[in-house]
Amino acid sequence: MLIGELAERAGTSTRTLRYYEAHGLVRPQRSANGYRVYDEAELRVVREIRSLLDVGFGLDDVRPFVACLRAGNTSGDVCPDSVLVLRRKLAEVDDYLERLGDVRRQLHDQLTHAIAHREDTCPRKRQSAR
Asked: HTH merR-type domain spans which residues (predicted)?
């Protein structure tokens, strides 16, 4: 299939496919007239790349998954290097969630303090609100 068909089937643009190619993630064949020609395996690779990028992986993170698919595996996440990336990414997400929890607690405490302080210093507003 040509680059336009691959882009359409993968739900991306030809520009994006060229970008992936420039980073060594997608490997087209070249026809006699120089056109990029892709097989079904490249469609699987592009779909894997897009799904990983959609959940926050970077291009360097994607490489082990692509290599795993190219090695003949049915999934890009079954190889040891892919598992390492998944573990690292999960640890990053857990850390981020912990930091978000800390921020949420700080905001909640600040709001609680602000409401209590407002009620102490603005008795007329409290009475008019009733």
From this structure: 1-68
